């Protein structure tokens, strides 16, 4: 348990961190926040440096306690933009506390998680070695992280990613992996400018050409790219058992998503790859009419991938379909990763969660989304999990009025502390 003095110190640092804007999309406050974080890590006895990446810097730290195990702790100090500003109850970087909650951009994703882990580290007295890698570009796709990690090659026995938080019932979640990602934009251009629609009989319309390509990629049920499903790793009995235990109310989930209806069960969310159109645009979309044949049309598409699918292979198959009919831009490419439920880091995470929350944690084979786990997997690290979060589904991560219940922040500190002890001895 934390003493009142420890709680006050942790909250003071949490507030300070939140009051430093660090919006990676606009660069606001990035360098200042990285400097603050480096100084705080040094205050806790971590040997910290600010390291350049070609973009926003990484704050990297090490603490050698003389043990034979090393834990790499990954987090990010950057946050999402605050728009729409008029929907915030309090200024987004005020770190306002009200009725046991703290409000501010980054409170849940990811500054509260990082502060909780650092405070837990300051309490830890064992011989586990630590490496801290805190990037400043997670919210813009970790664009420079792969090259940085490839150069740095930090060695570790296990990695804990930014925290997965608590579910709607207050149970701690332990996520064993992530889906991979291929994010592209397809642009079809058929003219140098918009053309009067009376010329439609003799000119190509880029929208219809784009629709043809999209229909060759996905038929509404299955992805049609060559070999897309060939490499998918079959679900083990252990993974099937984990999914069966998830106990998720699908109607409750539907309502929380604001969806009118769901098209599949919970198993698909975690184990099936997807092809999704994020946005599509062309021509005149204002009020009234404007009779034109547009000059261009584009669609943004993301593929979420499951273990053994390779985003590079999927991209190659996509290019075979598109050929020279469209321009292709890549905005994201990350590998899917899944850690064995029998890994030491998982066992330690489960045991420590039970101690602190007095509840069985929810173990998820992999998230439905993506984190940069693959860059650490490529280093040969096979024990990678996401856990020890401070947020809940109502924390409004990425939205106005992002918030965290202070009780959950303090619990995360206790969980991290117990996990460090469990992992060092497991």
From TrEMBL:
Q: Name one Pfam family in it.
A: Peptidase_M20
Question: Keywords on this record?
Answer: Hydrolase, Metal-binding, Protease
Give the signal peptide range: none
Q: Does the keyword Hydrolase apply?
A: yes
State the protein's name.
Answer: Acetylornithine deacetylase/succinyl-diaminopimelate desuccinylase-like protein
* Presence of the UniProt keyword Transmembrane helix in the record: no
- Domain named Peptidase M20 dimerisation is located at 177-327
NCBIfam families linked to this entry: PRK06446.1 (NF005034)
Determine the domain of life of the protein's source.
Answer: Archaea
Species:
Sulfurisphaera ohwakuensis
Tell me which Gene Ontology terms the entry assigns under biological process. proteolysis
Q: Which GO terms describe its molecular function?
A: metal ion binding; peptidase activity
């Amino acid at each position: 348990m934390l003493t009142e003095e420890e709680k006050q110190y942790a909250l003071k640092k949490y507030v300070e961190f939140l009051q430093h804007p660090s919006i990676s999309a606009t660069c606001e406050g990035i360098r200042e926040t990285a400097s603050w974080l480096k100084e705080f890590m040094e205050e806790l006895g971590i040997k910290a440096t600010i390291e350049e990446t070609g973009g926003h810097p990484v704050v990297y730290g090490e603490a050698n306690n003389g043990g034979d195990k090393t834990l790499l702790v990954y987090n990010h100090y950057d946050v999402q933009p605050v728009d729409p500003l008029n929907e915030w109850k309090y200024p987004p970087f005020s770190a306002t506390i009200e009725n046991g909650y703290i409000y501010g951009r980054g409170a849940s994703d990811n500054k509260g998680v990082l502060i909780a882990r650092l405070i837990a580290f300051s309490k830890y007295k064992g011989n586990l070695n630590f490496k801290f890698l805190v990037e400043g570009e997670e919210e813009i796709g970790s664009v420079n992280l792969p090259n940085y990690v490839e150069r740095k090659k930090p060695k570790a026995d296990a990695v804990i990613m930014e925290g997965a938080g608590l579910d709607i019932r207050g149970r701690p979640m332990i996520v064993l992996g992530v889906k991979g990602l291929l994010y592209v934009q397809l642009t079809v251009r058929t003219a140098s400018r918009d053309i009067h629609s009376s010329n439609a009989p003799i000119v190509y319309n880029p929208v219809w050409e784009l629709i043809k390509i999209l229909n060759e990629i996905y038929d509404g049920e299955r992805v049609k790219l060559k070999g897309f499903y060939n490499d998918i790793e079959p679900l083990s009995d252990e993974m099937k058992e984990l999914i069966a235990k998830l106990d998720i109310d699908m109607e409750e989930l539907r309502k929380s998503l604001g969806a009118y209806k769901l098209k599949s069960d919970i198993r698909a969310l975690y184990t099936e790859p997807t092809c999704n159109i994020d946005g599509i645009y062309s021509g005149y979309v204002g009020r009234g009419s404007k009779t034109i044949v547009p000059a261009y049309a584009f669609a943004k598409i993301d593929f979420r991938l499951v273990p053994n699918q390779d985003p590079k292979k999927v991209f190659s198959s996509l290019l075979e379909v598109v050929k020279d009919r469209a321009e292709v831009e890549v905005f994201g490419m990350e590998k899917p990763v899944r850690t064995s439920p029998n890994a030491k880091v998982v066992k330690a995470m489960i045991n420590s969660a039970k101690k602190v929350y007095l509840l069985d944690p929810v173990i998820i084979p992999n998230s439905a989304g993506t984190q940069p786990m693959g860059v650490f997997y490529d280093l040969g690290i096979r024990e990678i999990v996401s856990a020890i979060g401070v947020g809940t589904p109502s924390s409004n991560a990425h939205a106005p009025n992002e918030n965290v219940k202070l009780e959950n922040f303090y619990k995360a500190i206790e969980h991290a502390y117990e996990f460090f002890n469990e992992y060092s001895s497991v």
